[in-house]
Design brief:
63% helix, single chain, 1201 residues, mainly alpha, elongated
Length: 1201
Amino acid sequence: MMTECTSLQFVSPFAFEAMQKVDVVRLASLSDPELRLLLPCLVRMALCAPADQSQSWAQDKKLILRLLSGVEAVNSIVALLSVDFHALEQDANKEQQLRHKLGGGSGESILVSQLQHGLTLEFEHSDSPRRLRLVLSELLAIMNKVSESNGEFFLKSSELFESPVYLEEAADVLCILQAELPSLLPIVDVAEALLHVRNGAWFLCLLVANVPDSFNEVCRGLIKNGERQDEESLGGRRRTDALRFLCKMNPSQALKVRGMVVEECHLPGLGVALTLDHTKNEACEDGVSDLVCFVSGLLLGTNAKVRTWFGTFIRNGQQRKRETSSSVLWQMRRQLLLELMAILPTVRSTRIVEEADADMEPNVSVYSGLKEEHVVKASALLRLYCALMGIAGLKPTEEEAEQLLQLMTSRPPATPAGVRFVSLSFCMLLAFSTLVSTPEQEQLMVVWLSWMIKEEAYFESTSGVSASFGEMLLLVAMYFHSNQLSAIIDLVCSTLGMKIVIKPSSLSRMKTIFTQEIFTEQVVTAHAVRVPVTSNLSANITGFLPIHCIYQLLRSRSFTKHKVSIKDWIYRQLCETSTPLHPQLLPLIDVYINSILTPASKSNPEATNQPVTEQEILNIFQGVIGGDSIRLNQRFSITAQLLVLYYILSYEEALLANTKTLAAMQRKPKSYSSSLMDQIPIKFLIRQAQGLQQELGGICFIFIAKWIFFSPTPHFSFLSPQLFNHCFVKTTFSDRRLLMLGWYRIYDCLMFFSAFSAVPVNYTQVMQIIEHLTLLSASELIPYADVLISNMNQLLNSGVPRRILQTVNKLWMVLNTVMPRRLWVMTVNALQPSIKFVRQQKYTQNDLMIDPLIVLRCDQRVHRCPPLMDITLHMLNGYLLASKAYLSAHLKETAEQDRPSQNNTIGLIGQTDAPEVTREELKNALLAAQDSAAVQILLEICLPKEEEKANGINPDSLLRNVQSVITTNTPNKGMEEGEDNLLCNLREVQCLICCLLHQMYIADPNIAKLVHFQGYPCELLPLTVAGIPSMHICLDFIPELIAQPELEKQVMNILELSDNCWLQPSLLFGGAQAGFEPTTLGFFTTVLTQAKRYAFFMPTLPSLVSFCRAFPPLYEDIMSLLIQIGQVCASDVATQTRDIDPIITRLQQIKEKPSGWPQICKDPSYKNGSRDTGSMDPDVQLCHCIESTVVEIINMSVSGI
């Protein structure tokens, strides 16, 4: 179509814009041939009544009439407009119906009668109405054939549209018909029909030029009806050419039409052709051309449909045997090649640098480099060729391959864009190794790679880019050495920014060059440690960094293999970190720890890396562990401190996990000392991490979940979950404002110490200072910790205000959130009893983990100071947990020391494990003894002292008050007296101890069982049963307790069971009933002597009332038991006196007739009998006790009814 229309004159962009804007002045400036093409629209504009009635349009209309007055062809167009178009439309509709009825091939026509001459001669001899009918009939015939072709393209031969003599007249008729009959001749259908005739593009341009508003509609319609691949068919090529002519006529809409092409995924050749036209019209020397941007956007965009569509266009274009210059694909490749060649260095020496040239300056080369203004364009061209070859399957020609290699091995300036260009060139060499085909080209590549290695440091220092190509070179070299070809492919795809298929076999030659000629493993390792660390490393720094290289080298154990120390590099990198946390830091620490503990090979067990020293760790925390203000002295970022803490935790955990493996290799790496752990504010750092969860990427949850709650390491086990629930001291806005304004006095440690010196006389100053300290944050309290803790023993004196003690407790809990280990050791040492002429022992953290009971060897006054006792119990619980972890860790560390060697073992199979089992049993026994001893000491503390008993304090006051509330709702004198006993320090200490015992029993029920088997004072039973909710678990082993031979323990267990039934009958129904059998007590009546019978039944008989209240079904059995006991006692005194008979008689009557017990109580023998139990023998006293118990049971049962 391009060739058939070359001799015709098209509407110029200038003329089309004038028509589009109705610019009469521009129209007047057109030449006669240009004006001739626009006459149909101008004549209609001049003759038809306008919608615009403004004065300006009236003036423009006069100018148009004046413009048309001298044109001869106007008269023929005016004649065309004088026809009756309504009648013409009716005839056309009739002809359409006739053709539909008779078939498209029918020669019958209503518009045109039988032609006597050819269509061209008929058109010449006809008047205007007949000309309209001739053109309309021919056009309708073509349109009908198009609709019936089902998408198959055809070329219709028509004299009317082919004769060069009548083209202009035919175009006039066509434009008038479409303008006057728009419903019959939609412009999109007319445009589609014109593609099937010769000179159709010319007619189409004239038609659109005379209806300029239809430009976008026509273009979209042609594109929507077009082929997906336009260069594969004649119709596609003609459609593309027609649209190109339209866009040349209206170049301002060319890019919009190109967007329609991409949107519909039709006519890819048109999109490229329009881009080529636009590139030629707006040539840009330095910037990236529109062609590069357009094709890159298609292949590298996110729309997979567009990418597949355009890739098919490239592949199909290559399959055609002959690619002529008329092919759009050929034109695109040629234009890209010209752009590539335009930016190549003009002067380039092809000689190879000899060894003698090695002393040249680093930045001086015989190779001329890229100009700085061409670097970005060169990078864009490289990515485009990568996409064309890797995604679209373009096979470069020899010329293209040669020029690409020249561009890739050129040397850019040391700028960020230059670094990016070198990285792209390097990855393109790896991805498309076929570009290097000759030995000369291979040598050129090797020289260029050597230049990269030499210039890497200069580029990084000059460009200011942290992620330089040097790290990528190291990383690829390491991947080649470890044969991780898939990792290289991922690296290449990531750098290029596209997913392309790279066969691992294509990297074989590059692998040989890297591993044997450029980067041996020893060179890689030695070079890696000299690479500077990344300053302020964070997740915001993208790309391939030194940390990626070090990580891969650590994984492959290259450092230990070649005896290169990497510890200092890792330490420096950890110090140079910031938030947000870089994702490679934690894996780097993990693989570094593995390289410390695990040798690279069994043959060389000493081939390990060195751990970070304790002094280096302490340097990281300088300012946090010091005595001055943290905010002023903190040298390293919180990120560096958290990463070092992560390293310590992971190291200790890995050390324990690999104990057996290390012992088998006869290696024992050192663990970090407890003194180091004491100086690291672990809880403070974890609190900081909780506030930076988003920036730290979840490292806080790793600390808490893995290494704090579940770590078996003794250094951290005492950090129980409860410590994270302590509330921080919140400073209100008004208090903080007062601090800022200086209304509060600032106290230093010396003033604080002086205030404590005056404590026995004056408490005011201490109160003021500690109230001020409550306004400080946890980290700001650290400087005051030594003074506060060292003077805590002075608060044990009598007369210290309770508010001071509670505030000190509050401050201690706040300090516990930032420095728990050191705080606990200081507190234990400060609360030791002060004995004259005896030097106090200073305990260490290790002492307290080995023997947690040291905590309870404090000053006895602490036992009656609830705020300080709360602190003591908190430490005791923590050290008990730490002791368990310490012993478990000790067993793991020494697991292989006591195991007999296989050479000396001459026993049965499996006997070698016996020592290990024994050690585990001994550990469990020690822990059980330790826990039970702590419980026994705490229970002993709950007992009132002699002076407290003198003041009327009774340990069962709580139970007595509870029982009184249960039995009656009316206030009584006993209640009022009991309230005084509840408001005392002993009662508060008892509550604190009961809370701790409850937690211990729930955590390990075996502790409760062991304590009850050991036994404790019975007078504490009301307190423990009422104050420890978990005491009900004792019911599970009550039968075992009762079966013990000791009479005292049997009595205690029955009383405990009674108290449990009294307080929690509904909860403990099944277990208590199963644990208590009256027949068991009946058995004791027959085997116990008189003295033991008295000692056993006198305290236990009153508890039977509780059993009857809780379990009414036991009523009959208990009554029988009481009568049995009474009979046994009566038989013993029968030989001495008969005074006991009336009692037995009354018991029998009570059992048979319970309703008559009021009459029995009125019996004179019952009322007036001797009640002086002190003068009776034990059996008589026991009988009276039985009688009282029976009466109380009956009273309880009758009142319940």
